[in-house]
Amino acid sequence: MTDRPITQRQLAASLLAATHIAERHAIAAFIADAATRPAPNPFAQTSAGAVRQVWRQRAAEFQSFAIATAGLPCLLTALSGLSVDEALVQEILRAGPHTANVFHRGDGCRIVGAVLYGKPGVSLPATPTSGSRRRALRPPARSRRAAGQLDLFGSVGV
């Protein structure tokens, strides 16, 4: 495991690569959104067994209170294939009434599962179109060009 913090952009990109998560595009878009921020996380270091127990209970609660979710069935399926003592890291991000919990193996790259949910009676954020998803995950223009890179076409007079 690493102590180096994972950026939201890295987490969103890793989530998009996690093809076992059916609703990964909606969750990644939420994580990459400028309004989404890391939330207090008292249990960042956890285990597959603890996550399985907590999220089975939450699944029942969410159903009882009609809380919309994305990714919950895929998380529970992924956890069922892990040893209960397998170490996991939890990332928690929030924006308004919505929260995303992402579980990975400590490097931010190997995503086990993720859940996006809101408050009772609040629908999930709208999933952006594929073009706006790509723009949300693209680095800002100033950071795309490496420092010291030549601009071969910028000085051509027309």
Topology:
Layout: H1 8-17, H2 24-32, E1 37-38, E2 45-47, H3 48-64, E3 69-70, H4 72-80, E4 87-95, E5 98-104, E6 111-117, H5 130-137, H6 141-144
Antiparallel strand pairs: 1-4, 2-4, 3-6, 4-5, 5-6
The number of helical runs is 6
Could you list the spans in which at least 5 consecutive residues all have pLDDT below 50?
A: 140-153
Number-wise, the strands total 6
> Span between N and C termini?
54 Å
Structure description:
The protein contains 6 helices and 6 strands. With 158 residues, it is α+β, with helices and mostly antiparallel strands. Strands 1, 2, 3, 4, 5 and 6 form a 6-stranded antiparallel sheet that branches. Helices cover 36% and strands 19% of the residues. About 9% of the residues have low confidence. The N and C termini lie far apart (54 Å).
Characteristics:
6-stranded antiparallel sheet; globular; alpha+beta
Summarize the structure.
The chain has 6 helices and 6 strands. The protein has 158 residues and is an alpha+beta fold.
